[in-house]
Design a protein that fits this description.
alpha+beta; homodimer; 82 residues
Chain lengths: 82, 82
């Protein structure tokens, strides 16, 4: 399954708010064959990175859209290195 | 130890080239108290994300500088969510 990293900019709210939004993603993701794996937040600048597996960029985007409406500014299909 | 995500844009070269650069980071990182943990590459667009722990943004940047000279376009101090 392809892997994706998205970037959200100018996110308002705290880390705890994003934890809440992420939980909504987890409730929606199965419908779209997506698995949100981790996220990272720069709380000072309001930047959030989400790493997810899924069939396409659009599938991940649809999860965000239906879960809480906060869609990403960029989505990159990525290969992971260690 | 704080956690950081950096973004490199317009990286030329393949995933294997980035694997090589990352290995150079791993050789240099101890000198600066840094631990590069993972990276992700969008090979089509030449975007690379690096996740590292370290004392500061500058410490991570210095590792890239001394290892191979390919410094990041952005560095974000982040908190990880699951």
């Amino acid at each position: 399954m392809p892997l994706f990293m998205d970037i959200h900019r100018d996110v308002e709210g705290s880390f705890e708010d994003v934890v809440g939004a992420h939980e909504m993603d987890l409730e929606k993701q199965e419908e779209h064959g997506v698995e949100y794996k981790h996220f990272w937040m720069d709380e000072e600048e309001g930047t959030v990175f989400c790493l997810f597996e899924g069939p396409s960029k659009e599938a991940g985007e649809r999860v965000h859209e239906e879960a809480h409406g906060l869609t990403a500014d960029e989505i990159h299909e990525v290969t992971e290195g260690h």
